[in-house]
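Tutorial, part two.
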Amino acid sequence: MCHVVSGRQASFWHDIWTPDGPILSRTGPTGPMVSGVPLDASVSSIITNGAWNISARSRHPILRYIRSVLPAQVPDVDSIDEDYFLWRNSPADQPTDFSVSKLYSTLNPDPPIAQWHRVVNFLGYECSLNVLIVCHLR
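Running the prediction step on this input gives:
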């Protein structure tokens, strides 16, 4: 997730900087064509004179969607601070700094606990596991 400060590093179409995720994932390939915003545009490139530079007159559904997800607070393109990216270590976590151990735990969760019993019902007879292993090996 990208926290936009100046908008110079955040990709308008590809980065997750709005609540809906990447804008391109919602508009599809027609988004850049309809809006006139290049596919490689940064967030700051669509700000003019401190305001979003997206056509306000058009009723096209894609442009209406784009205008609806743009934050009310326009990034300060003159800020000396840069955009920064946060990492969601698991689907339930809030975005934060990257953690290798949390990522590993998310990708490799603990297996479920197996319930083991000393006695097994085999064809109506209760046998210990040792008997079954011996029978199987013969």
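Helices lie at 23-27, 30-35, 61-69, 100-107, 129-137. In part three we will examine how such features are distributed along the chain.
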